[in-house]
Amino acid sequence: MEVQLLRHATLLVSINGKKLLVDPMLGEAGVMPPIVNSPNSQRNPLVELTLQLDWQDIDGVLLTHTHRDHFDDAAAEQLPRNIEILCQPEDEEKLKKLGFLRIHPIMDEFFWEGITIHRTAGQHGTGEIATQMAPVSGYVLESKGEPSLYIAGDTIYFQEITKIINTYQPNIIVVNAGGARFNIGDPITMTAEDVAAVCQAASTSKIIAVHMEAINHCLVSRADLRNHLKEEGLMDHVLIPMDGETSIFL
User: Which of 50, 156, 164, 189 could be bridged to 244 by S-S, CB 3.0 to 4.6 A?
Assistant: First the structure.
């Protein structure tokens, strides 16, 4: 298995001989306005995409949700209309209206190209903000002869994460860090403390932390996260890839 971070939460996962594009944000740097009610006013994305995709090499797309930093206008325009898209049921109608023809909404479990995909819950913040940001999903991918992969999606650490880890015992966990937040309310993605909590709940898993330094309201940098994990003695559990970097798991 290979997991390549392209930028932010956009991943290219190679599993069971297939390439799955996760949460494509494909626009050029600065093409989107800043997330409003945020501590800074930089335009998004903050950095360029690291790889030009060849659609003939992509077998499918996996969407945790369709907020614009996970499925932007560029992705909506560039994705071939006949590409297979796996998504949460709540996003099916939006994708149909955009003209996509091969949409697979996942209620609980879906079998695709020799890969079993389990949909999992997420909590995109706390209180009223979490209600407004919902729904979001994560996914556990399992395939014979491959490590199991849990893509947590846009969620803070909450008790359900521990249940998911205990149920599926994933070998690899991708967490969306960055501590994204607005001017009011609590963070809506994982902080450094949340990533540490995942490490403690999944002591035998390798954690990949992404979702940093690409969107204006993500305030926890790679350096911030690395420093906190070192202080907690957890850095051996975690990979913090740079954009374009590929992690290989046997």
Answer: 50
